[in-house]
Design goal:
By secondary structure, this protein is mainly alpha-helical. 48% of the residues lie in helices and 4% in strands.
């Protein structure tokens, strides 16, 4: 409308005084990576036993940028623009220099020695970050030494600048990798490493002023308090007690088969706002999770059983992926009915393989005299003895 008024198509702009009322809470908030997310991240792509780095990963950047983000808490662009000389040592401490100033003379200028402008988000972003011992163990300082010996000026020269940002294209590579192997949730992105870093420091009782200095937040602001996720609040025991009778009736209905748990949850989620019963369920769930986590941390046998169950589940998924090799793990049928047929067929073949393995493993165990104390650790989920693609002349 402003353009139309300038060009003379309209006399007045009726939208000149209109603006969206954006609240502080409307901004997209990132969440920290969970432990399960980190395990998936550091078992795929550049971190797999056989690294698979596409062209978009830009070689060493695919490995070191996530590592640096996790152990330094820096922003993606801050890491991508690092120079070789930004990795320094003073008084026996190795550290990174995050700055928008050129290296060497430390005088403010528009561009650094590479001919490309460096930037930080705020003035507080200029800082020094100690290099974590785990990064040293992984060979980061040796990597920097090799780059210096090769005559590079930038630490990651493979990152090409696009619209004044050297990590613009690389962030797309990370988004694709994250969507495929980690999560496709909008609230978890590369920036989640900063939230994870902040949460870990806070869990270690590090002073808030030190956390702000490390992540580059102004000391007078309260931005850091939003990092690391919800710090948590006590379980509302009074609310659970108030709705205890309703919880018991719901549990009795589900146990007796009067209603299914999925139908009950669907009914509760249909309310425009969470009602009292839904909130009470959430609080009970938090209590159950807390008790389980305490037992898990204390009980070594429970941790072993849990890990064994997870390993079996992953092995079953690996078997399904091996059988479903033609479509690379993707259901490409358009209709839900065809997708259901495809999934049912896959489950049928997987079950047939498991049945065959179970039968002949039992025969082999009986022939070899293997006892049940050993067989209970054997899962019939292997497929190396099967020819999944056939033999052709």
């Amino acid at each position: 409308m402003r353009c139309a008024k300038t060009l003379g198509f309209v006399q007045t702009n009726p939208c000149s005084d209109q603006a969206l009322d954006m609240k502080k809470g409307d901004a997209k908030k990132r969440k920290a990576y969970s432990l399960a997310d980190l395990k998936r991240i550091f078992s795929c792509g550049a971190f797999a036993p056989r690294p698979r780095i596409t062209k978009g990963g830009c070689g060493p950047a695919a490995f070191w940028l996530p590592m640096l983000a996790l152990f330094a808490g820096a922003r993606l662009e801050e890491l991508g623009q690092l120079l070789i000389e930004d990795v320094r040592r003073s008084d026996g401490i190795d550290y990174l220099v995050v700055t928008d100033l050129p290296d060497g003379n430390e005088q403010e200028d528009d561009e650094d020695v590479t001919g490309q402008a460096k930037s930080v988000k705020t003035a507080a972003g200029r800082r020094r970050i100690p290099i974590h011992s785990e990064l040293k163990r992984l060979g980061f300082l040796a990597f920097v030494a090799r780059r210096r010996a090769a005559g590079y000026l930038r630490l990651f020269p493979e990152l090409e600048y696009y619209r004044d940002r050297c990590t613009k294209n690389w962030s797309r590579y990370w988004a694709r990798l994250s969507d495929r192997h980690v999560t496709d949730r909008d609230d978890k992105a590369f920036h989640s490493f900063r939230h994870t870093f902040t949460r870990m420091l806070r869990n270690r009782k590090v002073a808030e002023t030190i956390i702000k200095a490390l992540v580059g937040h102004a000391d007078a602001g309260d931005v850091t308090t939003g990092y690391g996720g919800d710090p948590g609040h006590p379980i509302d025991v009074a609310h659970v007690a108030q709705h205890w009778d309703e919880l018991l009736r719901m549990a009795a209905s589900i146990r007796s088969g009067t209603v299914t748990a999925s139908a009950m949850l669907k009914r509760l989620s249909a309310y425009p706002r969470q009602n009292g019963l839904a909130i009470a369920l959430r609080e009970v769930g938090r209590l159950e999770r807390s008790v389980f986590m305490l037992n898990w941390l204390r009980d070594l046998d429970l941790r072993r059983r849990t890990q064994a169950g997870l390993n079996k589940g992953e092995a079953r998924n690996a078997l399904a992926r091996a059988i479903f090799f033609c479509q690379l793990g993707e259901l490409r049928d358009r209709t839900f009915q065809n997708q259901a047929y495809r999934a049912s067929g896959l489950n049928l073949v997987v079950a047939a393989v498991i049945l065959w393995n179970t039968r002949y493993l039992a025969l082999a165990a009986a022939d070899l005299g293997v006892g049940p104390d050993i067989m209970r650790h054997v899962a019939p989920l292997g497929w190396e003895h099967l020819s999944l693609t056939g033999d052709y002349a």
